[in-house]
């Protein structure tokens, strides 16, 4: 049995860090040989939100006087939990002057995304914005201004980001109530009737995602090897699947209890090329190139 060690020096320096190439000292003739993964060490550093995945933008509205403006929140490429997205919402509201400060110095924001653990869902809450400064409240120096009539911000969740938070097939827009707490909430149209909404006595609207949130679209890494052709697999070059059991940013150390052997294509080679794919079978973009993969090659006769 032969062991091949691929590490950061084998990563193709294209910034994507998803391809490794091992070049043999001399051309190797392969006949009835099998290959398998002995171990993988890498950091959990592939992004769940990025411009490349087209899931990094959503919007909200804010009204000053009678003029309503739509503001875009662009999420920088990275690894995010729902709490991180909510902190970005708060940061954006602070930057835009869309918040107030209560009597104990807490910032009051008028929409939020939170985890509803009991329903295994994401919950969007929107709150009525007042027409003047409430008693005991203060306003920041950059406060954007009050509306003529009270309103709930309207949050638009576009395609792709909707999968991340679990609000899918609803047209992308959540409608607020008409200006005050006495107006009844207008139910969604038939095409949007499969998500849950409540309206509180003080005008708070709560929306529950109608699908399970897909916070990490690529929860597994598939190893594709150029020298393998498995007729029962699609793609036919996949030999292994890695699922991280650590937190984002931590070191993954994966060692199968027993090597799963895949037959190599007979022929003459001067290299082995590995591509790291996501669950969508597309090459992953990996932030940290510190990757070590141990491959084993053995003859067919060893199985006898």
Which structural class is indicated by helix and strand composition? mainly beta
Shape by Cα distribution = elongated
DSSP summary: helix tally: 2
Tell me the number of structural domains: 2
Overall mean pLDDT stands at: 88
Radius of gyration, taken over Cα atoms and rounded to an integer in Å: 26 Å
Provide structural commentary.
The chain has 304 residues and is mainly beta. It has 2 domains: 2-46 and 218-303, Jelly Rolls; 57-208, no CATH class. Helix content is 7%, strand content 35%. Strands 1, 3, 15, 16 and 18 form a 5-stranded antiparallel beta sheet that branches. Strands 2-17-13-14 form a 4-stranded antiparallel beta sheet, with no helix packed on it. The longest helix is centred in the N-terminal third of the chain and has 15 residues, at 82-96. The protein starts with a strand and ends in a 5-residue tail after the last strand. Mean pLDDT is 88; it is low at 175-194.
Which helices and strands occur, and which strands form pairs?
Elements: E1 2-6, E2 19-30, E3 33-43, E4 57-64, E5 67-74, H1 82-96, E6 100-101, E7 107-108, E8 111-116, E9 121-126, E10 155-156, H2 161-165, E11 196-199, E12 205-208, E13 221-225, E14 238-242, E15 251-254, E16 262-263, E17 267-277, E18 292-299
Antiparallel strand pairs: 1-18, 2-17, 3-15, 3-16, 3-18, 4-5, 4-10, 6-7, 8-9, 9-12, 11-12, 13-14, 13-17
Quick overview of this protein structure:
The chain is mainly beta. The protein has helices at 82-96, 161-165, and strands at residues 2-6, 19-30, 33-43, 57-64, 67-74, 100-101, 107-108, 111-116, 121-126, 155-156, 196-199, 205-208, 221-225, 238-242, 251-254, 262-263, 267-277, 292-299.
């Amino acid at each position: 049995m032969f062991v091949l060690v691929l590490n950061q020096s084998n990563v193709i320096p294209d910034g994507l860090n998803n391809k490794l190439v091992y070049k043999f000292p001399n051309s190797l003739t392969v006949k009835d040989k099998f290959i398998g993964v002995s171990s993988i060490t890498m950091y959990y550093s592939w992004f769940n939100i990025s411009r490349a995945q087209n899931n990094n933008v959503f919007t909200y509205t804010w009204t000053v006087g009678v003029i309503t403006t739509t503001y875009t929140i662009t999420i920088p490429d990275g690894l995010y939990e729902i709490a991180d997205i909510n902190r970005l919402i708060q940061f954006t509201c602070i930057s835009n002057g869309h918040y107030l400060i209560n009597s104990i110095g807490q910032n009051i924001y008028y929409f939020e995304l939170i985890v509803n653990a009991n329903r295994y869902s994401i919950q969007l809450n929107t709150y009525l914005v007042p027409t003047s400064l409430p008693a005991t409240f203060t306003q920041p120096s950059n406060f954007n201004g009050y509306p003529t009539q009270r309103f709930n911000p309207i949050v638009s969740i576009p395609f792709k980001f909707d999968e991340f938070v679990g609000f899918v097939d609803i047209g992308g827009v959540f409608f607020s109530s008409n200006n005050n707490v006495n107006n009844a909430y207008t139910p969604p149209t038939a095409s949007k009737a499969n998500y849950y909404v409540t309206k509180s006595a003080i005008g708070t609207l709560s929306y529950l995602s109608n699908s399970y949130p897909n916070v990490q679209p690529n929860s597994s890494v598939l190893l594709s090897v150029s020298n393998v052709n498995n007729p029962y697999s699609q793609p036919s070059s996949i030999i292994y699947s890695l699922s991280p059991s650590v937190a984002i940013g931590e070191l993954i150390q994966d060692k199968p209890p027993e090597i799963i052997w895949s037959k190599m294509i007979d022929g003459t080679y001067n290299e082995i090329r590995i591509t790291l794919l996501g669950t969508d079978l597309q090459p992953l973009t990996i932030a940290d190139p510190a990757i070590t993969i141990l491959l084993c090659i053995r003859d067919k006769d060893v199985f006898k």
